[in-house]
Structure formats: C-alpha cells, structure tokens
Design brief:
By secondary structure, the chain is α+β, with helices and mostly antiparallel strands. The chain has three domains: 20-180, Sandwich (Jelly Rolls); 188-359 and 459-594, 3-Layer(bba) Sandwich (FAD/NAD(P)-binding domain); 370-458, no CATH class. The chain contains twelve helices and 33 strands. Strands 3, 4, 5, 6, 8, 11 and 13 form a seven-stranded antiparallel sheet that branches. Strands 17-16-15-21-33 form a five-stranded parallel sheet. It has a four-stranded antiparallel sheet with strand order 7-12-9-10, with no helix packed on it. Mean pLDDT is 93; it is low at 1-27.
Length: 597
C-alpha cells in the first residue's frame, strides 16, 4: 500500500481487511459475511458519519437528504458459496414514537428488494431484513433510502445460519474483532517528529509552526476537509484576534461570512493549499484516532483508523499535540481533565481561589452546548416540505426560517461526548420541526432548505489539566503572565440555554452571558499536560475553568495556541526536553519565536 501526501489511498486491496467483506467458514459449511457500510464502493447520496465511533462502535452511512430520498449506496461482493442467506442490518430508529420512523430504508440484493423496512427499532441494534437465495456468488448489495431524513446503516451481516450478531456493545466489539481478524497492533507503523491529532484551526496552526522549524509532522484528521468548526462542513466563521500569529493564521482562518454560509468552501481551498506548501507536513484525512499507547507518564504512539476502508495505522513520535477538542489523546493516555462548572468556592492546588463568575454553589456537569447550523434559500418556485411529526416533541410550535449561533443544545444530565449522537439528533429535530412550522405560517412558498450540517459543532467538553488552570479571575484581572503566549480582546462569552431563564422557551436555543474586559493573556503552562510529560494541547481542550474558556474558545485564539505549541514542540526537539522543560529553561526562546522579543 502506498500513501500520498494528503493521506488518500492510492493502492489498496479491497479484500485485505475490513473494506467490504469478512468470511468465517465452519466445518458444516456454514458461512458468515460482514459488510461494513462505510466501506461501500459507491456511497451514492449517503455520507460517512464517524462522529460517534466511541459511543456506537463504528462509522456509519447516513442518509442526510433534508427530506428528499437520496441515491442508493451500493457495493459488490463475492460470497463463498451459493445458497440461502439470512440478512441482518445494524441500524437504529433515531426518533422513536407513535409515528413512522423518519430514517426508513430498505436493502436490495442482486436487484431484489427485501420486504422488511429498516431503521424502525429503537437504539443501535441488528434488525432482521429477510432471507434470500443466492444463485450466483458475485453479489450486488444496495441500501435504498425511503425518506431523506437521516436513516443510518452501520453494517450488513449475511449468514447461512439463522442467528443474529450480538447487540451488547462489549460483546459486539469482540465479535467484530473476531470477524475482521483485527490485531491490537495496527497494520502499518509510521514515525514522525511530531504527531498532531485534530485538523481544526489549532491543529493546522501547530502543524505549520512546527514544520517551519524543520519538524516532520503528521496531522491526523477524521474529516475530508481541514478547518474543524470553520470548515465548509460546519461553517462557523473565525473570531478573535491573531496577535503575534497573524502570518500563520491568515493562511488558515476565514474572512467574515454569516455562520452557515457556503463561502466557507473558499476558505477550505485556501487552507488546504497553504498546508500543502509544506513538504514536511503529511496530512492524513479521514483518519480517526482511537487510542493513545503509554509507558509510565509518556505517550509512545497513537493509533488511528481510516473512516471508510478500516485500515489501521500506528503513529510514533517523541511528542504529541491534542487538538481534538474533546481531549481524546489526553483522555486515552490518562491525562488529568475537567468537565462541567466549578463551584463558586473552588481553589487550585496553591489554595488560590478560582473566583468563578456565574458559578453554582456546588460543581455540576453543565457546559456550553453543541450547535448544528443550517441555511435556507429562495428556490424561485413553490417547494413543499413533508410533515415531520417525529420532530414536534422537540420543536413544539416554534417556527424559524433560518438558523444562527443560538441554535445550541446542552443539558445538565447530558454529556457532550457520551450523548453526542442524541444531542445532534435533538438539534436535527429542532431544525426540521421549526422549518416545517415556518412553512405552514409563511406566504413564502418558495422557501427551501439549502443546507443543514450533520456534524456537531461543539463549544465545550473535556478540558485537559496543565501546570496552570486558566480561570475567569485571570481574564478579569488581565493577568500578565511571564510565559504569556496568547492574547485576546473579545468579551468573556459563556452560553446557557434560554429555557433556564424562561421555561416557555424551547430547549434548543441559547443565550450568552457577557463580561467586558479590555484584553487578557494565556500562559504557556496551560498548553501542556500536567501529568503526561510529552503531551501538549491547543484548542478548547486547553487547561482552563468553565468560565475561563468563555473568552478564548474562538478559533483565532485557539489558533494562537496552536502556533505556540508548534513552536514549543520544535524547541523540545532542539533541546531534547519535555514541554515542561521549555517553561523551566527555554521560555525566553519560545517567546522570541512567537514574536514577543
């Protein structure tokens, strides 16, 4: 197998591992065939969704058609033997209730449409699709979308034995490993000077800063485009100042366009062209990290899997930067982290009070929420939109013809990581239901949905703990740290759900609490892990309190963090030291690289 600079496959045997087909032959000539849907040769109108691998076990195909049925996804396989096969599909009904499931679809094998309607059972499980006689072992498999409303297909299982695979997540994981023959050791190993996981603005900035200092960099990103929340897939324009990092960040950030604008695609192009200029940055698009291997207090490697063909790769380096937003690399490595709001009397390890504003009497798990942006347009002709009764338990009578940043969902009993798919689906219900209500109330029959993101745009989840935890008090006091590597001027801006203030408001709209401050700085000590010696972090998973995140969570600011840790990594290599060693012995040189002479 070869790999080009963008991380795309140039040569791969489609039967080597997981791409389509795994066979297990028994003594009595029973056969089992597992087809991973995300590896289909032709995804048709469906999209590969890898956001929730840690929760449901795998990427899957999603029929995100905004209410219009999509073109079939399909693939070709070769079965080991002719005969009668029982067929199961791993799927779910994402909006269960007393109505037809929104994400219904069917399976078509060798042109024959099986009768069972799929996507109708609550929760991720194997649903029986029917039985079929195979008379010729080359087999065509297709999935046929019936609604355009986010049907999902994870995998297809054909067996000559009438027995479904396990639904229990732990059992399913082991069963899948047995079927695929997956080893604990990935198929390929690559070595670099620096491994960065997460290709948002912070990760891209860190890559450029490190590459300009001569480091060989791997940038791992689980989407086909770079930019994270600023990409054309999520479409949030970048905010904040660029300070000393303007030269690098101007290669990556956006011009101002309304959130949700298709103009985001132009900034995608700029971003990819600029990253592509650096021969020593190797970008691995559509690769999702799934493990950090550690020895004592250090990461030894990061393992990643291609989101479509399932190939695995191990990335080895002396240094790692976590730009995943959710802090996955640190979490898997055992790094200390925080989640939720600190209580109003919280102290740090030096018995200095955090001084948190808007804090509860006791710590809780409330965080800023996840947004799903959307956009409408004038179609120049009357456009209908189907009834969506399954969305009304969320949308109620709320009507809206467009979406803004205020479309956001968080709840104290929901975790922005563990419950991420439920949160995204809740927002889809809010959008479809509110748009349907608007169509009923407006005289503008030409109004149509142009775009709805299916990717969750998160604001807050895990925050990895560094040698310094950045707090509201630091922002309010405009603390001037001797190791300040980031500067910001925007208001402290912490979101909360509108229905906390007014119970009549829908639960999917947010408001913001603002605290005006002239400027503030972030110290380098907040950008490396307290207990994992070779881990740095940049982005919203940096070391801070809940309110401390309120100001510097925007992308130009996190991009500054990326530049700082990219330069810091280069000094770690130069002096054969740890990120903490840079603070203790070489902080002056880091500040010079950033431009603070």
């Amino acid at each position: 197998m070869s790999q080009n600079k963008s991380g795309t496959m140039t040569k791969f045997n489609s039967f080597i591992f997981f791409i389509v087909l795994v066979l297990v032959s028994c003594r009595n000539n029973q056969y089992e065939v597992l087809i991973e849907a995300e590896s289909f040769d032709d995804t048709g109108g469906w999209v590969v969704d890898p956001q929730f691998v840690e929760q449901m076990g795998s990427p899957y195909l999603l029929a995100h058609g905004l209410g219009i049925p999509l073109a079939d996804a399909g693939t070709e396989i070769t079965l080991p033997e002719k005969g009668r096969y029982f067929v199961w599909i791993r799927t779910m009904n994402w909006a269960p209730g007393d109505w037809e499931a929104p994400g219904r679809f069917k399976i078509v094998i060798n042109g024959r449409e099986l009768k069972e309607i799929l996507g109708t059972k609550e929760g991720w499980r194997w649903q029986y699709a029917g039985r079929i006689s195979i008379k010729d072992t080359p087999v065509s498999v297709k999935i046929k979308d019936l609604t355009g409303f986010d049907g999902r297909c994870d995998a297809i299982f054909l067996s000559t034995k009438d027995s479904s695979p396990p639904d229990d997540p732990a059992e399913l994981k082991q069963w899948r490993r047995k079927m695929t023959g997956e080893s604990d050791i990935p198929m390929t190993t690559r070595e670099f000077d620096l491994v960065i996981t997460g290709g948002g603005i912070a990760g891209c900035a860190a890559s450029i800063a490190a590459a300009e200092q001569g480091m060989k960099v791997a940038l791992i990103h689980d989407r086909p485009v770079l930019g994270g929340n600023a990409s054309s897939e999520i479409r949030v324009h970048t905010e904040g100042i660029t300070w000393k990092s303007d030269r690098i960040l101007s290669m990556l950030n956006t011009v101002w366009w309304p959130n949700g604008s298709p103009d985001a695609a132009l900034d995608d192009i700029k971003r990819h062209e600029n990253i592509g200029k650096y021969f020593n940055i190797e970008v691995f698009l559509n690769w999702r990290a799934y493990n950090s291997n550690t020895l004592s207090d250090s990461i030894t490697s990061v393992d990643a899997r291609h989101t479509s063909n399932g190939e695995t790769m191990r990335f080895i380096a002396p240094l790692y930067i976590d730009c995943t937003g959710d802090g996955w690399i640190g979490y898997w490595a055992g790094a200390e982290y925080m989640y939720g709001r600190e209580d109003s009397s919280k102290y740090n390890e030096n018995w200095e009070e955090y001084g948190e504003l808007w804090s509860p009497g006791t710590q809780d798990n409330r965080v800023m929420g996840t947004s799903v942006l959307w956009r409408t347009y004038d179609a120049d002709k009357p456009v209908t939109f189907p009834e969506v009764p399954w969305a009304m338990d969320v949308a109620g009578d709320h009507a809206a013809a467009s979406g803004t940043w205020k479309w956001e969902f968080s709840r104290n009993d929901l975790n922005q990581i563990d419950d991420a798919e439920y949160i995204r689906d809740h927002m889809l219900k809010a959008i479809y239901g509110s748009f349907y209500n608007a169509k009923q109330k407006t005289e503008d029959s030409n109004l149509a949905l142009e775009w709805v993101s299916y990717l969750a745009g998160k604001r807050e989840s895990r925050r990895l703990v560094g040698d310094y935890v950045y707090t509201f008090k630091d922002e309010r006091n405009m603390a001037e740290f001797p190791d300040a590597v980031v500067k910001e001027k925007r208001n402290i801006d912490v979101h909360y759900q509108q229905n906390l203030k007014d119970s009549a408001q829908p639960d999917f709209l947010s408001e913001a609490l603002y605290y005006k401050v002239d400027h503030y700085y972030i110290p380098y000590r907040s950008l490396y892990s307290k207990n994992i010696r070779n881990l740095l972090m940049a982005g919203r998973c940096f070391s801070c309190s809940h309110v401390g995140l309120g100001g510097p969570r925007v992308m130009n600011t996190t991009g500054q963090m990326g530049v700082a840790v990219g330069y810091a990594a280069s000094l770690c290599k130069k002096y054969n030291t740890s990120p903490r060693g840079i603070y203790e012995h070489h902080i002056g040189e880091l500040l010079e690289l950033i431009g603070r002479n």
